[in-house]
Amino acid sequence: MSADEITAKAKILVHRSRVEVFNAFVDPTVMSKFWFKRKDQGLREGDTMTWFVGDAVDAPEIEVRVKSIKQPSQITIEWGHGNRFTTVSWTLDEQDSDVTGLVIEERGFIGSHDEIVSQALESTGGFNQVIVALKALLEHNSTINVVADHM
Predict the structure, then answer these.
(1) Which end of the chain is more exposed for a tag (fewer CB within 10 A), N or C?
(2) How many CB atoms lie under 10 A from the CB of residue 52?
(3) How many domains does the chain have?
(4) Is there a domain that residue 146 lies in?
(5) Is 24 exposed, middle or buried (0-12, 13-18, 19+ CB in 10 A)?
């Protein structure tokens, strides 16, 4: 497998409607309960915004460029810093009226083969934490701080 074929991937079934799962990522108020803090007005195709890692005044920032939104089935963004951006895609597949298959994939890592593998593994772990936190919020109305407590 070549370095440009390496992707980070996380997937899970969420026992909520596809629209509800989709909106959890688009709506900054909901997403801030299980992932990044946001001060935008929601994801809109073509927008560029900043997401924050934590609540501190000097919290690290991530630039986000919204590339594509196909409601309620797909979101594609580029995110990163400086000249190091990757592409992240959310795909939502309705399994049943209240069950959604969620897949998050990240690609376009930059660096040596070992660096790319390391980045993909780190992202895979991070996205798995995100989807578990999302599932806890939407299915059990519980915020479990998995993402905030990441080491």
Answers:
(1) C
(2) 17
(3) 1
(4) no
(5) buried
Task: Give domain status of residue 103, yes or no.
Answer: yes
Q: Chain centroid to CA 27: how far?
A: 13
The tokens of 99 are what? 């069950």
Low-confidence ranges of the chain (pLDDT < 70): 151
Residues 12-45: tens digit of each pLDDT:
999 999 999 999 999 999 999 999 888 788 899 9
| Within-domain flag for 111 | yes
SS3 category, 98: coil
Of 116, 151, 107, nearest in space to 8 by CA:
107
Q: DSSP class of residue 115? A: H
Closest CA to 40 of 25, 56, 54: 25
Residue whose tokens read 């899970």? 12
